[in-house]
Amino acid sequence: MTKLFEDYLSSIEELSTEEISFSLQFFKPILLKKGEFFIQEGVHCPHIGFIANGAVKAFAIDKEGKENITCFKFENEFVTSFQEFVSQQKSKRSIRAIEDSIIYSISYPDYLYLIDRVSTWNNVIKLVIEQEYSQKERYMLNYNNKSAVDKYHHILSNEPMLVKRITTQDLASYLGITQRSLTRAKGQIHKPNVL
């Protein structure tokens, strides 16, 4: 599994082979079973991780105790509550495994030491933050103020992996609609053509 992480770091072309070899020692594998937390809302954000295998969801709990899912992360993506990790504040959201997952994690003290020793990690983190921002922007553009059918159609066309790997309940929360609305949207899109 370390090879996957090493290959990813090589693919972004920011770090030299020597820098990658040096960096790997600071990332420790965490095995999360489906349902286990990587980060919990209200707790200090202790680490940043790279998903080598599996998937997670990020969410916050509203006043009614309902999960509001803001994103999903899969293999070859970094995951944390970035703002709270950098400022070492309590996380405003939870990140929980939705599949058995292997995440290579680095603690905050090791992260500080690594960026001090390998300054090009700043470029890697900048890239990760830009990807995070881009993902949030796409979410706002594609899922705000649209019908359930339009939202589901967009998922089918642009993010089909979500339909394959995410439960209906989680997908509905992510889209900001009820499970019933999502089921109706699926029915409208997938209904057989009657001659």
Per-chain topology:
Layout: H1 2-11, H2 17-24, E1 28-32, E2 37-39, E3 47-53, E4 56-61, E5 67-73, E6 78-79, H3 82-87, E7 94-97, E8 101-107, H4 108-117, H5 121-143, H6 148-158, H7 160-165, H8 168-175, H9 179-190
Helix pairs in contact: 1-2, 6-9, 8-9
Could you characterize what this model shows?
The strands form 2 sheets. This protein has a 4-stranded antiparallel sheet with strand order 1-8-3-6. It is globular. Helices cover 48% and strands 21% of the residues. The chain is of the alpha+beta class and 195 residues long. It has helices at residues 2-11, 17-24, 82-87, 108-117, 121-143, 148-158, 160-165, 168-175, 179-190; strands at residues 28-32, 37-39, 47-53, 56-61, 67-73, 78-79, 94-97, 101-107. The N and C termini lie far apart (51 Å). The protein contains 9 helices and 8 strands.
Strand tally? 8
Helix content: 40-55%
Distance between the termini: 51 Å
Q: What is the overall number of helices?
A: 9
Give the overall shape, derived from the CA principal axes.
globular
Strand content: 15-25%
Average pLDDT score: 89
Global Rg: 18 Å
Main sheet attributes: strand count, strand direction, barrel closure: 4 strands, antiparallel
Q: Structural class, please?
A: alpha+beta
Give the uncertain stretches in residue-range form: none
Order of helices and strands: HHEEEEEEHEEHHHHHH
Strand order, sheet with most strands? 1-8-3-6
